Structure of Ferredoxin--NADP reductase:
Amino acid sequence: PATPIDTDALVIGAGPVGLFQAFQLGLLGLSAQVVDVLPQAGGQCVALYADKPIYDIPGVPVCTGRELAERLLQQIAPFRHGLHVGHEVQTLRPLDDGRFAVGTGAGPQFLARSVFIAAGVGAFTPRRIKVAGLEAHEQRQVFHHPDDLAPFAGQRVLVVGGDEAALLRAATLAELPQTTEVTLLHRRDQFSAEAGLLARVAALRADGRLRVCIGQITAAQTQGDRLASVTVLDAEGVETQQALDVLIVCQGLSPRLGPLADWGLALERKLLPVDVATFETAQPGVYAVGDINTYPGKKKLIVCGFHEATLAAHAAHDRLRPQERGPLLYTTSSPLLHRRLGLA
Ligand code: FAD
């Protein structure tokens, strides 16, 4: 296993609240490492509504989910915290010396003096097609929301899904110069995406470059060690076999509380109860901020998470560096904060 990274704070989740948590920790002079299972930072803002506008961030009349994530990343850049995307935190274990051993399976390992759980509604994982025999072909012939489509050129590709993510991939593949046999499979002949993309798909469909099939996969057939075809059941109850080289699944992401439930922390309806003065859980040194926590009056809003992260950072700082306790410093006027922000 990799040598553990030593850090003052380990932040689980790079959603808006986890990112702002890292900012507040940095201001207080604490080092932090941020981990997220998704391939990018931004949590729900990027995974669920990247291009939709948000109107209730203080001082920002409007920005999209993606823009908010970009600005938060820009804001934490001066602190040079570590950001580890594509890794799920699987284990969290208190050690005798007061630190926590945090593990991500085969990925990075951490030794942290405090832990901030900003896990939102849980680790986002792609919704899979629940049909026996598909899992064995993942990453070889079965892909979930792949970003790079170039390797699939010239092949027989079945794209499953009915939203923006599925349509964009199906259209991009159908437009490749190499003849790529693309079929878009969805439960209903009804698709949700912005008008331009819908028109693009309709044109490719009319041209015969993109085949649309209505139905769902009910079985998979393997030949040797390859996925050869799937059985598709249509709305009339008729089953057909669809031969393929590649299966691209875009059925959205669903949050999974996952390993968090095994860390010995008290949960209340899948949420972590916290002390509202410190946002500490019942486990000293472990804080919970954002959508994952619960307390009287809790509102699952970004602005509330920002407040929670601020108080949690101060609580952790007081606990880890009691000798540094002093008056509250303002970013406007404190030379120390300016130095930490890389301004002086
Ligand atoms: P999240 O954004 O959920 O991020 C948590 C992150 O933790 C995820 O990326 C997840 O993958 C990761 N994670 C979880 N477990 C693990 C693990 N074990 N290992 C590694 N990573 C893990 N709020 C507003 O204030 N204003 C709005 O206008 C608004 N609009 C919204 C619109 C929609 C459609 C939705 C769905 C929500 C909206 N919200 C809005 C709510 C807002 O998005 C959430 O309150 C906010 O995202 C919570 O931030 P978070 O950082 O706590 O959690």
About this structure: The CA atoms of residues 10 and 159 lie 38 Å apart. The longest helix spans residues 302-320.
